[in-house]
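User: I'm putting together a teaching handout on how multi-component assemblies are represented. Below are the sequence lines for each component of a complex, exactly as they appear in our records. Could you produce the 3D structure of the whole assembly as structure tokens, so the students can see both representations side by side? Please keep the chain order the same as the input.
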Amino acid sequence: MSGPFSRRELLTRLGGGFGSVALAGMLARDARAAIHGFYSGPKLPGRAKHVIMLFLAGGPSHVDMFDPKPALEKYAGQRPDSTNLRTERETGGLLPSPFKFAKYGRNGVDVSELLPQLAAVIDDVCVIRSMYTFNPTHTPARSLYHTGSILATRPSTGAWVSYGLGTENDNLPAFVVLSPGFGGSGGSLARSGFLPAEHQGISFNCSETAPEKMIPDLRNKWSAAEDQRADLDAIQALNRGFGKTFGPDDYLEGRIKSMEAAYRMQFEALDVFDIRKEPETVRAEYGPDPFGNGCLLARRLVEKGVRYVHVNQGIGQPWDDHEKIEKRLRERCPGMDRAAAALIRDLKRRGLLDETLVVWGGEFGRTPVSESGTGRDHNPYGFTMWMAGGGIKGGIAYGATDEFGFKAVENRVSIHDLHATMMHQLGIDHTRLTYRYAGRDFRLTDVFGDPVKDILA
Amino acid sequence: MARKLLGVSLLLVGCVSAQPVDSAFFETKIRPVLAAKCYACHSSQSKSPMSGLVLDTKAGALKGGRLGAAVVPGKPAESHLLRAIEYRDTHLQMPPGGKLPDDVAADFRRWIEGGAPDPRQDAPAASAKPRGMSIEEGRKWWAFQPLAERPRPKVKAASWPATKIDYFVLEKLDARQLAPSPAADKRALIRRVYVDLVGYKPAFDEVERFAASKDPAAYADLVERLLASPHYGEAWGRHWLDVARFAEDNPTSEATNPPYPFAWRYRDWVIEAMNRDVPYDRFVKMQLAADHMSVPRDELRALGYLGTAPVYHKDQRLSADVIGGFLADDFDDRIDAVTRGVLGLTVACARCHDHKFDPLSTKDYYGLAGVFASTMRVERPMFDVEPEVERRYLWVQRRLFDLRYSINLLSGEALTVVNSVELVAKWKPELQALEKEMKSYQDKYPALVKSLERYWTFAPPAKDQPRQRRVETTSREPYMNAVYDAAQYVDGSEKAYTVLQYKPGEARDYPVLINGNVATPGQPVPRKFVEVLSRGETAFRNGSGRLELADKLFDDAGPLAARVIVNRVWGWHFGKPLSPTPSDFGTQGEKPSHPELLDDLAARFVRNGWSLKWLHREILLSSTYRQSSKPRPDAQAVDQANALLWRMHPRRLDVEAYRDTLLHVSGRMNPNPGGPSEDVDADESVRRTVYGRVSRSRVSKLLQLYDFPDAAQTSPGRDLTTSSLQSLFVLNSSFMKLAAEGVVKAVAADASAADTARALFRRVLARDPSPEELDAALTYLAKRGPESFAQVLLSTNEVIFQP
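Assistant: Of course. Below is the structure of the complete assembly, with chains in the same order as your input.
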């Protein structure tokens, strides 16, 4: 009842009712939405069909990874005027990066020694060094990252894409969230907000590798498959009998099909979600940790038509390095580096990189000034994200922060601009991606954001 | 480099200049920059220039955008254009792509200091007048008109109508040459009205008794019996809780916005109030202002509507602007919940600018914001306390909560904040003084003093010790999450540290925020009601103004409020409301399919004392409601969507009715009412779904699966979906397995196979099997046994379908 007409009515208007169209996916129920989604603006030339979002909660330190600042050495311990920006906590003098940087790829993009594998694929990566956002604390900044707003009512980017483009696979959700352990999907990241609940991200635990442990109620613990088929036949016989008594009804027919789809999904999902079916060499390339599993599974899912896969690196907010940043980054980076680079290589080998937009980042960056002498505070004024594939120029570093890496100053890209760019690459004019809500055709990007045209291939 | 040096030196020495500031200066130094860097977003050619600012005309530059004048000749400090391009203000930096070279900024400064000569001859920039309706036009909007009962329309089949509703429905059917559907058979009807009024399906005996009755009053009696059942309030209270965006915690439960341990008392109040048939106007008024009404203490539980509202975490290390922004978001929730929920108006659209379509202004918005800026969330005692003592207690309670948070923060992870040691030292004596003061009430109000105990023993944890994260999610202590009148202010006087100030008994008017931004406050607006709906005096004078607001909703805006609730109630009975946009009765909403019916019903609802049970009877006893829901090709060809109501809408049960029906038929239901919530996802949870915990951050898997609405905002209505994940739950979940076991336990164990089959059909589907069904059942039972067959029956469409 949220649009001009309900989806059921829409479906009927499109002709034929439920019986005559393919059952539209695990969550969407409308053939039109399944194939085209509800985006009705002009189709932009963007080539991407899928998004894989690699999310580093807590805020990875750009000056230690992608944005070298020699001035930090020169002014180490000092606090020049331009560094007096208010962040979450009280900070001290400038803290030089302990990591060595070198230039990689055809254009000589800076990457630190922490990320040798990403450095090796940098020609497929566009490093955006001039990101900025609008809040220095985790929860609101994450909400901005995922939804473009700090309000708890707004849908997340994955929900936008599920709503806008629909799904390509009847038996899998359009928007999947992979997170090690539980609690990764709460709050803004998977939220459907004011969009219909079917666009909510469906969350799976990627610290497990057995599909039946990742998907609730995927397997029946009490019946063998053939017994369950007999049960389902009995259910459907009763359903058909009831349908005959009542008369043709969209809901009744839809539920009959949905039961069949669920039955099939038990086996299909067992296959798709099972990364153990990958060759050992591929699994080794991604690495054995949950993030490696998540990246590999993300590739398997987009291969099968899932629109949007969000992969969380770690539990909680591991990249929140308020102290001991050198030690912690040395521990944490290798696994992340290996899996993210493997994903790019693997997508490319399979010819999927062009149609898959990979986005990497955290809710903000970290300060060039120190907190507690060995760590860095939150920095929404300037930080780094990167994109790869999906029609984005590779091998470039775009934009710049000031001489200390505190604030984006050149070719600034707001989190809203990033969202607009993602939509653009998916062929969506984000100003036309709307949903009738609270009395208007509500733009999912609200009133913000412009695509960053300079980084499009 | 030379040029850059020159620019800087010019700035230093003031207005000494090689080139005089004149029209030529504008043409060479200013206009090219405006054209290259600004016109893309700030052009009079653009349909909606950013921030309403146009710079390609002289008048536009002088007039400025939403912030005010962009260029004030001779006054650089007041020229927003200069502020923006000099990049000194973190909130206003233009162009967005990066700061202009210093010398260019210096040119602009000189130009403005020199009187901003601008030779452009232009027509005045297009006025930024909102496209929305004027107040005068708005007063004519259909939904705002006084209510009047309508004459009974003339219809062809005068024998069909049973209540006045039917005349309006039949008139429209007549006009399209459609006949209404025959009455539903009695077995379908009793199922329908059970699910509708008490929220689960009836048992076999109940169905058969009703089907067998020859008493013409049997249906009316059934309706009365169900309306009088305590389970009625459980089903209908839940409908209201969707509108009230009820939940027991916050979207992000953090240190300053922990869960609401007494939220369940508000939920219970709603259920009880429904059962008592508290008139709807009074029902809403109590939720907004019970503490200003003469009501028993117990009724203050109603204030949970505001007392459990979603709030954002306010980390005190953030700047006053950021904290002020969070606070404004809190107020926004209240404004949105009340105006969309009760009035069907999207007043929250007027937060940043006047409403683009409806006659609602930012003044309307901020007039309401003041009410909520003068209302504090607190835990109020369930027992009576002298008013002055309670007011003091409530202030102390909040102060202690904040102090504990501050001290904890500043002596722990935020030890680096300048002056943190001094600040903590300053607060310690305050803590001790408050302890002494509150302990003086020990004899008179021991429970009050006890509730503060945790603050006296408080000692901040050592830096490297993990902090205790125990958060009470629910409690039976004698308190309720409610509100009282206290003005809230953000105090940014400490440099690195922001605190909230509460002034009990005081109210504050809130300023219009330019573009909704707390950093750019405009004029304060008196606390007041929405102008277009007001008759006479609009300003509120009594405390926060909550009671006056509540009164206005049902006096000045009474016709609208009545239309909105009658439309919602219609939707909850029929599955579709008369207007398909129940929370938007503005110009962007959909008009009702039967406007005269809605008006007449609303008028009579008000005349009958806003009684929901009156409204239920009027609807349930109608022939329209009692129609069969079976499809009819002739009617579908004319009206596929059934907008004309030629049949009852068939539909899926909502999650509460589905789960509760499954618990009932399996004999597992624990029917005890009220009390703290439990986790509906837990196997051992067997109470009604309305007693399940509702979270804004960790939504129950089952609730989410079956379309439970997002509790962070008022819900306009549920969209009931079908999905394969739902089907996986039906096929494989332990809940269904337990239900099947329960069903088998509840039927006779030593019966013959045919008796067992029949008993299982009766238990689960409340009917006997057809001969074919019985045959199939016997074959199946022989192979797979009664428990599997019970699960088969539980999994059928028939269980989840409401004909």
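A couple of points students might notice: The longest helix of chain A spans residues 325-349. Chain A touches chain B through 93 residues (CB under 8 Å).
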